[in-house]
Amino acid sequence: MSTAAPLDRGRPNGPRSRRGVAARARLLDAAKLVFEEDGFLEARITDIAERAGLSHGSFYHYFDSKEEIFREVAKTMEDLLSAPLNAVVFDAGSVATPRERILEGNRRFLESYRAEARIIGVIEQVSRYDSQISAERTENQRNDLPRVVDSIRQLQRRGAVDPTLDPEISAVALAAMVHRFAEIWLVQKSFESTLEVAAEQLTKLFVNALQLQDAPGETFSR
Fold it and tell me: Model-level pTM?
């Protein structure tokens, strides 16, 4: 999957032509492959530039350091994993019930995680000792939290979710469950499962934890 990012026009030496945009995109794609193969510590800027078909010096026209390009690759992965929230769970045109949305959202999340498990595994490792990357990942994940919390509150008001649950604690705990499950399964490979079984079991845990009741016509807030 391409990790090409939008043009950063605020960067003084950023790409300002189609050729420059394409070169930057090649560097991001190459960096992802090098990080997957060599890990963060062993990855070299020379290898990234060579894989992208560019000179070593060209790298610094678009990125200041290995850390900077790694952070951008990590941000792209975070965006990919959070995409099901907009595309499925909070889809304004959907008439699916909350359980159906959670199931499909979990399925798509796991599909993306499985497809990108190698680079996500590297990101997980780096985030444990790099405070800046860890903080940026946490901030990205927090951006989605308010909508999830608000949805739980609204479902509680409608009598569809256990009213004694704290919405924020519930949202954080359930998100952590899904992310940690994916890491243990797809990165650490601690057990075997099919994607459909994994998505269904996660959804059951999610629904049971909330004591979610799917009334006819019940949907998430939008």
Answer: 0.85
